[in-house]
TrEMBL record:
<feature type="domain" description="MARVEL">
    <location>
        <begin position="29"/>
        <end position="156"/>
    </location>
</feature>
<dbReference type="InterPro" id="IPR008253">
    <property type="entry name" value="Marvel"/>
</dbReference>
<dbReference type="GO" id="GO:0016020">
    <property type="term" value="C:membrane"/>
</dbReference>
<dbReference type="Pfam" id="PF01284">
    <property type="entry name" value="MARVEL"/>
</dbReference>
<keyword id="KW-0472">Membrane</keyword>
<feature type="transmembrane region" description="Helical">
    <location>
        <begin position="133"/>
        <end position="152"/>
    </location>
</feature>
<feature type="compositionally biased region" description="Polar residues">
    <location>
        <begin position="178"/>
        <end position="187"/>
    </location>
</feature>
<protein>
    <submittedName>
        <fullName>CKLF-like MARVEL transmembrane domain-containing protein 6</fullName>
    </submittedName>
</protein>
<keyword id="KW-1133">Transmembrane helix</keyword>
<feature type="transmembrane region" description="Helical">
    <location>
        <begin position="101"/>
        <end position="121"/>
    </location>
</feature>
<keyword id="KW-0812">Transmembrane</keyword>
<feature type="transmembrane region" description="Helical">
    <location>
        <begin position="35"/>
        <end position="52"/>
    </location>
</feature>
<feature type="region of interest" description="Disordered">
    <location>
        <begin position="162"/>
        <end position="187"/>
    </location>
</feature>
<dbReference type="InterPro" id="IPR050578">
    <property type="entry name" value="MARVEL-CKLF_proteins"/>
</dbReference>
<feature type="transmembrane region" description="Helical">
    <location>
        <begin position="64"/>
        <end position="89"/>
    </location>
</feature>
Length: 187
């Protein structure tokens, strides 16, 4: 009886799965260089936001508030995107087009950061904190544009019609069926 238990135990008992890793290194949707650049984007936008937040007086507060909004948004959403892409959480969110989302977000943030930097650099109180925030803002802008450039270089533009690749980089199958004689049949 003991021999049958050992035979059946190995085939019929449910094995506990090995512990899953929560952090994926390197992330499947980011290469190592872009992963590093996204970390730099988070850091630079955070420093720009903190330096802007410490400014105590402003004559024309509109550009300051716009820069604050963009730098804070860049910090928080890039951190969220980085956490989602570097962990298994991106598999639970229900989004299947991560490259398109990443490209669209990074492009939009690069343009918004550039605009906010230009506006804030043109109209600020010329204090050291404001000028430092502008410098870190421009550095963050450069990082966002580098990220977009590397994405396009490695993967192309994901939402372009001529791009014949799926999100994972494999070619898409042809969806249009061809007639055997090359003519369309009319019924």
């Amino acid at each position: 009886m003991a021999t049958t238990d050992t035979v059946y135990n190995t085939t019929t008992t449910v094995q506990e799965p090995k512990s899953k890793k929560w952090i994926i290194m390197p992330p499947e949707n980011l290469d190592k260089i872009r992963y590093l650049i996204k970390g730099i984007e988070v850091l630079l936008s955070f420093v720009a936001f903190v330096m802007e937040e410490v400014v105590s007086n402003c004559l024309h507060c509109g550009p300051l508030y716009f820069f604050e909004f963009v730098s804070c948004s860049a910090f928080l959403f890039t951190l969220l995107l980085l956490i989602l892409l570097a962990t298994v959480l991106h598999q639970r969110v229900g989004i299947t087009c991560w490259p398109t989302l990443d490209f669209g977000y990074t492009t939009a943030m690069a343009i918004l950061f550039l605009l906010a930097n230009i506006v804030f650099a043109a109209d600020n109180g010329q204090t050291d904190l404001e000028q430092g925030a502008v410098v870190f803002g421009f550095l963050a802008t450069v990082a966002f544009f580098m990220d977009v450039g590397l994405f396009v270089k490695n993967h192309g533009i994901p939402c372009r019609k001529g791009n014949n690749q799926q999100a994972d980089g494999t070619p898409r199958p042809e969806s249009e069926k061809l007639n055997s004689n090359g003519t369309d049949s009319v019924n």
